[in-house]
Structures are given as structure tokens and as C-alpha cells.
Amino acid sequence: MAPLSTPAPPIPSHNPIPLSASQEAEVREVYYKRVRQRCAPEIKDFAACAINRTISATWACRRERLAMNACMVQFASQAEQDAAREEWFATRDERRAAREAKERRRVEQEKFHREWWGLDENGRRKFEEKEREQER
What we know:
Shape: elongated
Helix content: over 70%
Radius of gyration: 28 Å
Low-confidence stretches: none
Structural class: mainly alpha
């Protein structure tokens, strides 16, 4: 008997690069931001209706809520997720440059702090070491 070969399932995204959990969370944030941008007028209408309402917003703002949800469902698609992932990859170099600049600033500030307070690499005051050596 010949073994049955099953075709491989289709890849749901054309960006099959595996990401870490934190990277996936960043991609999700980009995705949610994109959907919120596309549905901004509907979200604004619902928010305006729901101001100063609590439970009554459920039925008083039903039309606005349904319009907002329909918009979000319309744009919450695999294609939008793929676009968000592509945007995340496109801005990866910018985020890396920002992270490196932040690290450089931190190192410069730490160096300034050490010079200002007269600290050595271990965070001890340099003149205290001289006093200890003189006591010996």
C-alpha cells in the first residue's frame, strides 16, 4: 500500500517569519491602530453618544455601536494583519535606531553622573578610596 500524501495546509499569511511573543504583541498594536484609524469617524460618533451614559448607552447608542462594530469587523481581516506585519517590519530599522540612540544617551548621562559625583566604575566615591588607602 502506498502512503497517502496530504497536501500541506496553506500558509495563512505571506509573512511566515516567526516572531517572539513581544514582537507579535507589537504587530497586534500596529494592527489595532490601523483598524481604529480606518474606523475613526464611527468610533468618534459612538464615543460622543456614550458620553455621560452608563448602562443606558447600550440601547441609546445602539445604532452608533453597531456601525462602529460593523466597520471594525469589515477591516479586521487577514489582509489587514498582513499589512500591519509588513508595516512593523518596515519600521524595524527606525525602532532599532531609536533604541540605540536611547542607549547612547543613557551611557552619556551615566558618564556625566560619575564625573559629576566623582564615582568610580563600582559607584564608589574616588576620594573615599584615597582616604582608605591613607588609613592603611
